[in-house]
Each structure stands twice: as C-alpha cells, then as structure tokens.
Amino acid sequence: MVKQERAARTRQLLLQAAAEVFVREGYARASLSTISARAGVSNGALHFHFETKNLLAEAVEECAAATLRRIAVAANEAPGSALQRLIDATHRLMAALHQDVVVRAGFELCAAAGRRGGGPDLRREWQDRVVKLLAEAERKGDLAEGVTAADAAMAVVTSTVGFEMLGSRDRAWVAPETVARFWELLLPRLSRPEVLGELSTRCADVVGPPPV
Amino acid sequence: MVKQERAARTRQLLLQAAAEVFVREGYARASLSTISARAGVSNGALHFHFETKNLLAEAVEECAAATLRRIAVAANEAPGSALQRLIDATHRLMAALHQDVVVRAGFELCAAAGRRGGGPDLRREWQDRVVKLLAEAERKGDLAEGVTAADAAMAVVTSTVGFEMLGSRDRAWVAPETVARFWELLLPRLSRPEVLGELSTRCADVVGPPPV
What we know:
Two copies of one chain form a homodimer.
Chain A: H1 3-25, H2 32-39, H3 43-49, H4 53-77, H5 82-99, H6 101-111, H7 122-139, H8 149-169, H9 176-190, H10 193-196
Helix pairs in contact in A: 1-2, 1-4, 1-6, 4-5, 4-6, 4-7, 5-6, 5-7, 5-8, 5-9, 7-8
Domain HTH tetR-type (chains A, B): 8-68
Organism (chains A, B): Streptomyces daqingensis
DNA-binding region (chains A, B): 31-50
C-alpha cells in the first residue's frame, strides 16, 4: 500500500471506531485513547489525523452527511412520483441507520447536549429534503384534498426522527417492515386516491432486520 | 420553616437545577458543583440529598415519571372516547415538555448514551399508555376500517418521540398549535368516520407557545 492509501485507510478505521465509541458511550464520555485502541492505531496516528475530539466528531458527521446526500440525490434523480421517491428515501435512511454505525453516530452527535460544532445539521438536512419532495408532490397535485405539504412534512419528519431515536435502542424500529407499515398507515391520508394505487410502501432494494 | 420543610425545599431546588444543567450540558458533562452552585446550596447539602450524580439523575427521572403518570391517570379517568383522551394526553405531555425542564431532562436522560440507571424508562411508559388507549379505541370499534391499534400506536409513538426530540432544540415543535395540526392530519386516517365529528384536535386546558 502506498503511503496515501495507508493514510486514507487509517482515517477510515478511526472514523468507524469513533462512531462505535460515540454511540456506545456518548460524545462527552468518549476518550480519544479508547477510540485509537479500538481502531488499532497509535495515539500519535489519531492526533495526526484529528487534533481534537470535536474535529473527529465533525468528520463522523460529515461522513454521515455524505450518505444522507447520496440518498437525497437518488430521491431527486430517480424516476417516479415525488411521493414514491420520498417513501424510498425514508427506507434508505432507515436502512443506513440500521446498517452503518457512522450514520447512526452522525445523527446522535447532532442531538447531543453540550455539543454544537461546525458540522452539518443532519436532521435539518433531512427535514429540508422531506419538505422539498412533498412540495413537489403538492405542485403536481398528488396530495390528498385539504392536505398541505407543510403538514405532511411535519408528520413525516417527526415520525422519522422518532424511528431514528427508538431505533438507536431497538433496531426493529428501523426495519423495512416497520417503515412499510408506517407508510401503509399514513399514505392513504397523504395521497390523492387516484395515485395511491401506483405507490408502493416498500423499497425493492432495501432489505433488513425483522420488524417491531 | 421547620427543618423538614427546608429539606424538601432544598431537594426541589436541586432537582430543578440538575434538570437545567443536564439539559444544557448533557448528563456526562454535568458536574455536581455546577448543580449545587445553580441551586444556591452548598456541596455538602447536595451530597446530603444525593450521594452520586446517577442518584440525582434517577430522582429527576422519577419526578418526570410522576408528571407522566398524572397525565396517564387523567387519560384513564376522564370522560369521553379513548381517542379523545389520547389526543388530550399528547397535548398535556407536549405542554409538560415545553413548560417543565424536569420533564424534558427526564426524557433526555432516558435516551442518553452511556447511561442506563435504575430509573423509569419514560419513553417505554408513554408507549405503553398510547398502546392501551388505542387498544381501547379498537375494542369500542372507534378505529377506521383496516387500521389496527398496533399500527396506529407506532405512528403516534414515533411522532411524539420526534416532537419531543425536535422540541428540545426548538420549542415551537411542542406548541399546542403544532400538535393540533398533527392530529388534524392523522385523525381522519385513524378514526371511524362516524366518530370523527365528535373529536377535537385541541385540548381546552392546554395553552402554549406559538406554532412551528
């Protein structure tokens, strides 16, 4: 491995280890030496990559934000109605929270008391994405009569934050089956009856753990 | 003030100060000396009431649990349908989260990473309450066709946890107006059409901050 590759690999190990320790112990309790030990690198190597715990947390948040942005880009560029792309995006976010400790740590760091660094605000980015997709559905006339994009977004955002929180203790909350049941409940209220039949509450490329 | 009254008053000051410091700095960062200073009592007095930070956190959680149980008892004993009592209970819980830092701290402590003391699990208690009220609504035939108590409870629990989380950063999320809009969206999907007209999405005795 050339030097640059090795450095990138060490950085990746540190991010993964930091995410695991932040999730298990919380940001405030997590120590840099626990993180370097878990990554199997020296304290010196850790300090070479990240001078402070806050910089390490920001890197974890940035990494989680990159995943969130990939989900957002997919939701923008995929074919199909805005409602279907929103359903698929919630499935992908929940799968990422389930499978990737860096994503989970990123969301938890954003909510941690006593910490507001310069990193991205993941919940706010997710909320903006939900609002945009529902505004598009509203413009196209896909929302049910009397339902506004703002109210629909409130219901979807609060629920997905709840899934994320409850899922951090019990992963069944972020299972695809649970997310599908949520959409089966909510969708008939959000969608115009004429488009309801075209929508699927599942996302074909997301598989995961058993439901709640 | 007699001695016993003074001790109870000091204990109350300490609980309030601890809740404020836990919310502001997080459990792991909070120091007992910051808490005693905020309460305006000596470190000795703090240690007389609470030997460890964990015992203090458990006392905050117990105090929040007592408020939650009062809301639950009101939801059990009030007249009216189970759905209306559930709506009112969500309004009362959100108002408590908004107005009472001890309730807010209690919920946040339950979710804090690296901490699982012997205190009550407030989110679990709330979830059980929601499930029971919706099971009652189901038995009475008040739920819409094809909607189960379990699925309705999932939607209500995830959303209320989301409101709680988002409300800890921006109180407008737990405003009565926001909660009423949530029910206006969800209720037509949960309730049998024949009982919908009898239900109010507001709770007369709850007032609060402006909406989102």
